[in-house]
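User: For documentation purposes, I need each entry recorded in a consistent format: the amino acid sequence on its own, followed directly by the corresponding structure tokens. There are two entries in this batch. Please keep commentary to a minimum and don't merge the entries.

Assistant: Recorded as requested. Entry 1:
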Amino acid sequence: MIHILVVDDDKNLNQTVCTYLNDCGFEAKGVLSANEAYDEMYNNLYELIISDIMMPEIDGFEFAETVRQVNKQIPILFMSAKDDLPSKRKGFLVGIDDYMVKPVELAELEMRVRALLRRSNIEMERKLIVGNLEMDADGMTATINGEEIPVTTREFNILYKLLSYPKKTFTRAQLMDEFWGLDSGTSLRAVDVYVTKLRDKFSTCDGFEIKTVRGLGYKAVLL
């Protein structure tokens, strides 16, 4: 399932776009501001972003620029009432991949979404390749040089999360909240145990290392 984040403070339009995309077979989630979008992206994985430009507090330009600082690959499509060339130019300069002027034809929006996903090679599957490691989020499999490495669901999700946001530090509490949920009887030390297992299982990977950030948590660093 392809996950799409729709960022637009027009609640009715946001809901309409999400409903249409969901009917097309995607899983779309709508938020009304860039700050809400940051929270969503921090806690969940998305394959594509659709964003308005004119939003309160943080506009689409600043939002797209911030996203690009931490994720160079995710496709970003602007959907805006601004039809002037300078706005379009600024959007592409900050790193967006496509631009549609409101009001949009939903059928055309779907076509552009599929084209962006196709160019990103994630139309049919969610895969992450780092060096000799390949992770398939739909099959929940991890292979090194084509050989499958046995992992639990939690191990897979932690590693996939770290590698999806290289150089980003995740605290033990953040990882615990996301991957252990309401299991309050589990100590934060459980995160350390899982990271130790991941380091051992993926010690032959040549594309990344899991670094300890003293006093905070962990981050993946690409080699």
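Entry 2:
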Amino acid sequence: MADTIQEAVTLALDDAPERNFRETVDIAINLRDLDLNDPSNRIDESVVLPAGTGQETQIVVFAEGETAVRAEEVADEVLDSDDLEDLGDDDDRAKDLADDTDFFVAEANLMQDIGRYLGTVLGPRGKMPTPLQPDDDVVDTVNRMKNTVQLRSRDRRTFHTRVGAEDMGADAISDNIDVIIRRLEANLEKGPLNIDGIYVKTTMGPAKEVPV
């Protein structure tokens, strides 16, 4: 499979018109024979890409004390319980934060308050925080999430996810796609039979089919 993925990626990169900005590379995944009105059939997976995302990933951490101090080294923003309460009173600011942030991480003991203050904003966006247990290293967790993408179909048969950037090269992008396909096939009820097609493209380039 790896060779055919690389062929599709190479075609997508070669056929992409020259742009004056760094394009991302995405895949579109088409599902079939699944009742996506049933939430248990929907795809909702976090996947760590072996070659990284090729893009900046915005991560916000809710933490206090020593964990907050350590999170400052790696997170884009660190918020405490007072900040959380302020966000709960400012719906527009909470929505802006949710839209601008790729992933949230929170100390486990703050999760109940996050549900109370921000659940109605983060929940529908699929952005409830990853709980940080007392033994978890916040630096390791954030660094891992910087290389993570979310596969989320909701109730749609076609959904998209980032797999890299054009200057990463076909090998690295292909490795990322391979990991995503393997995860999908492992989690779908009928494995590859539930995949109707996968297409890879740069931001502005033509889509190329990835054989599965």
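Summary note for entry 2:
The two ends are 7 Å apart (CA to CA).
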